[in-house]
User: What shape does this take?
Amino acid sequence: MKSLLLKIVLFAVIIFMGYMVYESINKPLKFTKERAKREAVVVQRLKDIRNVQSLYKQANNKYAASFDSLLAYLNSGEIPVVKLIPDPTDTTFTKTISDTLGYVKVTDSLFSERVGFNPNNLRFIPFSEGEVFVMDAGSIDRGGVNVSVFEAKAPFTAYLKGMEEQRINNLIAGEEDIEKYPGLKVGSMTEPSTDGNWE
Assistant: This one.
């Protein structure tokens, strides 16, 4: 009887240890998979911000420093539809004339293909339960020339909210060790770049 009880206990311990090994392998994989899924959504939102900022700059010669300005432009701004035609007086066929055919709303130009897209959600970091992207704009001096710059960023702690805290802390520490931003960002307040740190 003792032998049977010992076998049952050993079998239970083996099952438990097997489960623990499985979990130790599976947990990091689940975290990585969920992180990749969330980052794809956040990256798309940052690309949207960059696209609106680019059009805002074309219209205003500077980037928007706040989401209020950016969204006001997004909701009311228009982009000219321009047709380039050859200059009839040019015999070299290299000159063109711009002909404005009309105007299209910024939201229609950028987001008409996106079903269910709400431009008013542009400011919110996905998966963060309502946290807003940190955004700034200004200008920097580059070789005696004032260059407009902007930056929008989302920290790991915002879009990985609800996931395993220790793994998030490890991610943050890893990025800070190599002096990188612990999260996703587009643009820069110190360099004339509109690249994202995922590119």
